[in-house]
Amino acid sequence: MGTVPYGDNPHFYEVSLIGRPSSVEAIKDKGLRISGVRGALNVKVDISERLKQKADLAILAVKSQDLEKAIKDNLKFIREAQVLTAENGIRADGIAAQYLPKEKIISSIVMFGATLITPAEIVHNFEGSWIVARAFAKNDDKVIATANFLNKIFPAIVAEELQGMKYLKIFVNANNCLPAILGVSMQEAFSDINVARISIGIWQEGLEITRRAGITLVSLPDFPLERLTKLAALPILEAAKIFSGIMLNLSKDPLYGSILQSIKRGRPSEIDYINGEFVRLARENNFSAPLNEKLVEMVHQVEKSGRFLSKEQLLGALNQDG
Fold first, then answer.
1. Alpha-carbon distance values, 275 to 174, 269, 284, 291 (Å)
2. Domain 168-320 class?
3. Does 72 have pLDDT greater than 60?
4. Where are the domains of the chain?
5. CA distance 186 to 247
6. CA gap 85, 9 in Å, rounded
7. In a 3-state reduction of DSSP, which class is residue 307?
8. With the C-alpha atoms ordered 117, 296, 178, 162, is the resulting torsion angle positive or negative?
9. 113: buried, middle or exposed (CB in 10 Å: 19+, 13-18, 0-12)?
10. What's phi and psi for 109, nearest 5 deg?
């Protein structure tokens, strides 16, 4: 979680990081090391386990399953702040609204990619925009100010219809479960056409679920809806080959999705907020999501056992279930 005053002086921003003890110790000792598509740098930044003063803007850069604790631990100092949620899935704003004024919550979608290598080392894998909008009200000057601040780092876009974009972002993230089950990079996982075929199946099932649930998907700046629907409509082998090519060229550095990164750190993943969202939608509307439900179950098995599956085991388990 990060905080920053961003109102009075447009040329000066006091930034603080809030993190777990391992991150606090490592970053205090060696700084935050960032490498990747923009080169390498080492950032010295104030970091602690809890906020010590009020913030103007609080960026909740944690996983959905950690959001409630992060808010409660720092509530005293962020209750009056503008609060920016940055989690995958669609539930973060609702969680934040249990503790914070709805009119203070700004929702966002992160389209750039990064991998946490160590508690103090990050690889910035690929570029992308940062999309923001009010979660429960119309956009206002504070949303514009937040976008202007974020735009100093990534292209920031103020959106008028964020919910449909958030559902589409679930599709972008939904294939992260496969490298997580296998314990390999996304490039290695999707170099196998049979694994890429599963990805197309995830999308096809997700499209049917959102259609039947009456959800309107909205294009993202870096991922138009047409890309999803066209691939899902192709013969599955042809679509899998195209998808494999896209994933192999996504980053020159090994790319580990957010689900696998959590598992490697021995922490619960956000699978219930990604593929689990398809499962939840299906159940709420009295139909099923067998592929996504099985994949959610498999990720939880890997979390509990600490043992990754081979590609043969993954494919065999899915074929056994039909």
1. 6, 11, 15, 9
2. mainly alpha
3. yes
4. 2-160, 168-320
5. 7
6. 23
7. coil
8. negative
9. buried
10. -125, 130
Amino acid at 63: K
pLDDT, tens digit, 9 for 90 and up, residues 141-152: 999 999 999 999
- Contacts of residue 24, Cβ cutoff 8 Å, sequence gap at least 6: 47, 48, 49
Which one is predicted more confidently, 164 or 12? 164
Please say if the pLDDT value at position 104 is more than 70: yes
Using one digit for the tens of pLDDT, what is the confidence trace for 182-208?
999 999 999 999 999 999 999 999 999
Residue 208 has which token pair? 């049917």
Which homologous superfamily is 2-160 in?
Answer: NAD(P)-binding Rossmann-like Domain (3.40.50.720)
Q: Which two tokens stand for residue 254?
A: 């090994």
- What average pLDDT score do residues 130-139 get? 97
pTM listed for this prediction:
0.92
Q: What is the distance of C-alpha 311 from the center of its chain?
A: 24
Measure the CA–CA gap between 180 and 164, rounded to whole angstroms.
26
- Angle, helices 290-305/275-284, rounded to nearest 10 degrees: 130
pLDDT of residue 252: 86
